[in-house]
Amino acid sequence: MAKYLLLKHYRGAPAAVNDVPMDRWTPEEISAHVQYMQDFATRLEGTGEFVDGQALAPEGTFVRYDGEGRPPVTDGPFAETKDLIAGWMVIDVDSYERALELAGELSAAPGKGGEPIHEWLEVRPFLTAPPTVTE
Amino acid sequence: MNEVLLRSLTPSVLGVLVRRGADFAAAEDAAQDALVEALRVWPADPPRDPKGWLVTVAWRKFLDATRSDAARRRREDLVDVEPAPGPAPATDDTLQLYFLCAHPSLTPSSAVALTLRAVGGLTTRQIAQAYLVPEATMAQRISRAKRTVSDVRFDRPGDVANVLRVLYLVFNEGYSGDVDLAAEAIRLTRQLAAAIDHPEVAGLLALMLLHHARRAARTAPDGSLVPLAEQDRGRWDTGAIAEGVAILQAALARDRLGEFQAQAAIAALHADARTAEETDWVQIVEWYDELVRLTDSPVVRLNRAVAVGEADGPRAGLAALAALDDTLPRHTAVAAYLHERDGDPGTAARLYAEAARKAPNLAERDHLTRQAARLNDRHGL
Questions:
Q1: Which of B175, B224, B332, B369 is most worth mutating to test chain A (most A CB atoms within 10 A of its CB)?
Q2: Where is the YCII-related domain (chain A) (predicted)?
């Protein structure tokens, strides 16, 4: 088993095929999209492959240590950040191929006109603990 | 097995241990161990005297724990003075437990966790699941909280306002897991109301009952939020409403108004309206004025602006809103709503989309996005 992070981006990824902002969909199309995402997570729980899923707010702040006895330096939030992570799902699957397959399914969530949005998702393997058997 | 009955016995079991001389932290651990044991054993072998069983097992757990450390001598002294088991006045102990677990030296998250375990009788695992953190993290949070209050005298009355804040948090910020935290908060507040005569305790209990009554109507089958005005009022729990209103009226009659009574009064006015159109917004605005006076909270002023928009029209609501800081959470969502009521769907749709980007949770984000989509779709924007 290996864990993979499926990353969804607000910005920074190439544009999706069906790239219409959500507030330009019909309410029914939004419901269908939300339902698809919920069903996807539920199905992966059923197959024993779901680990975690979280959504992030669009805005964040960069923070840096600024020396002993001084408050941390902050910067942002930035209106024009190039890359913004919107959320993630962590899956625990048997192979890299399975991770790609599931990311492909997630990317097919319906959008405007009920058509798949073909959204780009980033698949990142977790660095794991070293194996016990080394020889 | 009746798990709620089991949980309701926890504070009195803990109280017996403390009266026998156990310190709070060790007694609380022992009570928790006995509870976990009961959850394992009772389904197959229910005891005739549940409380007696729990006290016996908890006391044994306590002795086992102290036997293994340097307190051996002290333990032997304790065994010598162990009182005969029997009925004990549980109410005062329970009240002291509430005060201790909500002690002002604790952070809100620690106070919530400790209250749920020591007073609520939930297991560490259940609390961890409910707040979506690992069990080990929750166990540490609870043991740190117990260290923080270790020097607090168990026999002094505390400030009931601290307890109410903790119970309100449990009710308002319950997430998931196999325990219904809203129902648990109601149970704990009810138990508190039985132990102390205080109009704000009654006010909080009424507030919880009135909001809980709407729960079934608050979400659609697909999980999306249903705003108050669109809820199917036939699905409101009339029993809970009647109980909440009765408790509130008795509290208000004592003429010691507080913020929870005022909030409950607003909830009761919504509950009184058979349809959204029949809502007595003028009276609701008056209660918000009371709340502003009592709390001076910007969030209350924001909600007041919504009520003003309903009572005196959207222009008046927008005027009230203009006086408030626009970085307040949900300020943009309120502005969107008032602009829609004012017949400006273009501005409303833009503000709904902006509010969705700022939404503090997914359900609200989806709801606000749907509002923007509805206006864009209907008006061809």
A1: B369
A2: 15-106
